[in-house]
Amino acid sequence: QLPTGLYKKVLVILHDSVLPYMNEPTLMMDFLTVAYGIGGAISLLALNGLFILIHQHNLEYPDFYKKLYSLLDPSIYHVKYRARFFHLTDLFLSSSHLPAYLVAAFIKRLARLALTAPPEALLMIIPFICNLFRRHPACRVLVHRPGGPADMSEDPYVMEEEEPSESRALQSSLWEIQSLQNHYHPDVAKAAAVLNQSLSEMEDDISGLLELSASELFDKEVKKKAVDVPLEFEQVRGLFGKKNDIFAEHFSLD
Amino acid sequence: SNPFEVKVNRQKFDILGRKTKNDVGLPGVSRSKAIKKRNQTLLKEYKEREKTNVFKDKRFGEYNTKITPEEKMIRRFAMERQQNYGKKNIYNLNEDEELTHYGQSLAEIEKLNDIVDSDSDTEERGTLSAELTAAHFGGGGGLLRKKVSSEQQDEEEEKPKSRKELIEEMIAKSKQEKQERQTRRESALELTEKLDKDWKEIQTLIARKTPKSERKDKEAEKPKPDEYDMIVRELGFEMKAKPSERLKTEEELAKEEQARLQELEADRLRRMRGIDEEANKKRPSHVSADDLADGFILDKDDRRLLSYKDGKMNIENEEEEGKEEEEEEGEEEDNENEEESQEESASEDEEDDAADGHSDLESDLESEGEAAENKEEKKHKANENESQNVEKLDPKREAAKSELPYTFAVPETYETFKSLLAGRTIEEQLIILERIQKCNHPSLAVGNKAKLEKLFGFLLEYIGELATLDLPELRTIDKLVLPLYNLCQMFPQAASDSIKFILRDAAHDLEEVIEVKGRATFPALDTLIYLKIVSLLFPTSDFWHPVVTPAFMYMSQLLTKCRITTLQDVIKGLFICCLFLEYVSLSRRFVPELINFLLGVLHISLPRNQAQGYTVVHPFTPVGKNLELLLVCDKEDLKSWEKKNVPLSIVTRLKETSRTEINHTRLSCLALCFDLIKKCAVLYESLPSFHEIMHPVRILLTQHMPVNEYPEKMQEWYHSALKELENKVKHYTPLICEKKKPVPLKQYTPKVVKVLEFGKKQAGSKKEQERKQLIQRHKRELKGAIREIRKDNQYLARMQLSEIMERDAARKRKVKELLGSLATQEGEWKAMKRKKWDN
């Protein structure tokens, strides 16, 4: 067992500095499987090496998607390795032979977790989900269910379920994205509104969005030129002088 | 006309619809026209080519086509009169003669006619002297007799005068009398005038109401105007009633104000939705049936023009530093030029500053001396600030006023601005700012706009400085927001630019810290104040706003990136949460960071190792050393706690206070957190996945909170928050996509293009076509001009030739003449000689 820091360092470089030069890359199989089973960031990092083994060396990994599914937790939108993780997830889910229930479960889970995500992650994940819809038209019931029950008291999707097949994702709808249409960031709201319409045929290219950072987003906004600047029409009465000012209730100017 | 002079351009083919301009020409006529014109212009010039004298036509308005001939004549006449006025014409003997009547000039009589009204004259006229009447009507006999008798009595030895003499004498007498009367009247008039003048002088001094007696005196002296005259004049001068705008009643004013607010609100809503603009922008352009609907759109040209503003280049992107450096050289040159031009104004300002500084000193001295009075004065000033237009009669106020100069120049640098405000009370600062604004209103001078725009930046900087003080002067800031708002209303563009600049700086600092240290800390209080000011100056509910959206982004970064290590961090974080809530209070937009942060704050108020059923995200960790930051275990502190507003100064320095106070602050934070959760719940209840969003918070509140340990007040907060969370119906309706518009079938109807002019190329946009037309016209004109010049030259050559030929012919003629005369002479001489020989 290695200390966590070293573990991470090894895993980061494993896939492009170690595996290609090994005679028997399959020897790493056990190491990666164990790493994958640890959970958290280490699992995310082990994914890369594992992918090479599966892809080029015919590694059979039982319940791979289930494991991947369980890796999705709120922190994935906040961690450093977000770009790498979603790049791989995109790869794994690009196969059009995946069952619809699995993809729907992924979609639903990603959307649910997106409710806690920062805008830069949201700008990436919404086109990501759109792409999944394009690849798997069977999942479109999630955004378009014309003959469904009119009113439900509960979201059929079970978040806590480990098994994607049991999560009943296909009976649910993507209310999360609908909520995100009210997001404060205009670009996120616009991106989420895309799902209201039927999708275009072409897939979005998300490779540029993977590495998006908050500061980039900020710079983009600041650089925008406005023709005219709307102004507040309510006369200012003081720093906390607005109507129903929250600050006046809790802060004092001392 | 003569068919032999007509030239016909024969057309090879007849083309329908073509207009032919030049198929028939009259070469002879046009040539003669051209020659005539040249005779008038070119020939004249040619003939005067070596003459330096110029003929100038100075007649007024001779070449001015704007005035009509009649007007021209009138003006000329007026000018002529003006020129001759005052000049004495030596030849006109009658000019100066003054017409008189009874020895006074007629003009003067006319002038006095009004004033010297009938009053004095009537008496005289009424009492025409008996002598005169006798002379006029009595045939002279009586008079004569009387005269004679009286004179005889007086001076008997004198000879009796003849009738003629008598009459002359009488006339002289009456003349004398009249003259005397005249002089008397004049002197009286003079006196009244003098009195008038004196009165006017006094009138200004005495209060408006004069005692009646005095007035009567005056009236008595004035000649009484006739009643009829008065009426006539009154009628003449009477102002015709003009329709004026009715004063509005208060209700109407209120109604108007309300309507204005409603309009603004509607506008705000439109911007909040952000839809209409989009719709307006891509108003469906007409789709022709030929349109293939392939959705191919050319990329927009996003090159940006370089622009300069206030001598500085408008560069928004810091990343293009390489580019910037190249351009900076140019910029510097510009700046130098600017500086030169500014130096003049700067020197002026320096004088002003000196004056200001001096007054500063004075006022300081005074304030030291009158420390006791100062307070009173301040009060006065506050009053004045509120009611500026009230007449200042109180001498004390006057004295207080005199401390501050009335006019201020806008400070050019931040230092001068600061020195201007330094050592002043809040009210004084406000007055100074107001006066600066009034004295330098953009409508008064050209440069004022830029100056005041700068002032906004200074004010912002000043506020930031006040906030970063060890003891932040938040009360001052609270007041300074008002002038800030006013300036912002005047110059939205500049204001947004400067605030954006501040935000950008703050964001870049944050990014740098993250890059260097790997983690960030919350910014100082000034940044928080700036963010608050943004919400005061700009509408935060817009879908997109040039200032508010970046502010949103920045706050989001703060809540997700900054480490929570101390209690101050928690307070700052909660402050930002409040900001978020305030920003979205109208638009009800969803802010995930806000919920995450509140969850985290609740989490750190719990004892360790209880994280179950929910996960906290980034700045907070489920395990780690910064847990229990808000945990209060002391039972006594819990009991003695009372909800208090958190003072903002705590953010800059946590006083070395007792544990109890710190614990109380913690509890206040927790209460604040509960309240925020409640507000969030109210705000987001309409979101379809409200329950999923609030799920972790609910679990934490219901399962992990040690509610029973909290004081009662806290429990109230807690329960009200929980109530808002729980009593929301779950309501899910399956999503249905909007119906797609059917794509129109492709049809192959012919393309119809508007033809503007035959024989012209139609390709290109309108602008390009215009350009082509211009080029074409230029070419044509150039050709025409060249042709004209050529013809001019030919004409001149012809003229020169004819001149030479004329000269030659004249010379030949003269030579012939000479030779002829010589020949005759010779002939004569020979004839004479022959005669001699013969003789």
UniProtKB/TrEMBL annotation, chain A:
Pfam families: CBF. Keywords: Membrane, Transmembrane, Transmembrane helix. GO terms for cellular component: Noc4p-Nop14p complex; small-subunit processome. The chain crosses the membrane at residues 31-54, 85-107. Belongs to the CBF/MAK21 family. InterPro entries: CCAAT-binding_factor, Noc4. It comes from Peucedramus taeniatus. This is NOC4L protein. GO terms for biological process: ribosome biogenesis. Residues 43-192 form the CCAAT-binding factor domain. The gene is Noc4l.
From TrEMBL, chain B:
It is found in: Nucleus, Nucleolus. Residues 134-193, 205-227, 242-398 are annotated as: Disordered. Its main location: nucleus. Involved in nucleolar processing of pre-18S ribosomal RNA. Has a role in the nuclear export of 40S pre-ribosomal subunit to the cytoplasm. This is NOP14 protein. The lineage of its organism: Eukaryota, Metazoa, Chordata, Craniata, Vertebrata. Residues 316-354, 362-371 have a biased composition (Acidic residues). PANTHER family: NOP14 (PTHR23183), NUCLEOLAR PROTEIN 14 (PTHR23183:SF0). One of its GO terms (biological process) is maturation of SSU-rRNA. The gene is Nop14. Transmembrane segments: none annotated. InterPro entries: Nop14. Residues 158-193, 211-227, 242-281, 297-315, 372-398 have a biased composition (Basic and acidic residues). Belongs to the NOP14 family. Pfam families: Nop14. It comes from Peucedramus taeniatus. GO terms for cellular component: Noc4p-Nop14p complex; small-subunit processome. Keywords: Nucleus, Ribosome biogenesis, rRNA processing.
